[in-house]
Design a protein that fits this description.
4-stranded antiparallel beta sheet; about 25% helix; alpha+beta; about 110 residues; 2 helices
Length: about 110
Amino acid sequence: MCAARFSGCLNGCTEEAACGAVAPVIASRMLDWNEVGPRILNSLEIGTVMTIFYQKKSQRPERRTFQIRQDTRQMVWSRSPDKMEGEVTLQAQRRAAAARILNGPQAS
């Protein structure tokens, strides 16, 4: 998720003259985690709706909500708010991502 979503500017700085301009990030202009961190974590706990598209035309796109649970350190997803469809620990995700980086892209 991008922290720019909270302020409308590219890197979250309100004093930035051209919010849409792409420029290298300067250390003095980086976001202060103490200020923005709680808002980002709250947004991740509330959840993000994503649409999953399939290559086959016969399958319709599905909307799922992905959320982070800080107390259990899990990422959960669901189709409806009342029932969780799946979960994975963030530690397992980190190991899988590290393995992908070390092993490189796999041919399908």
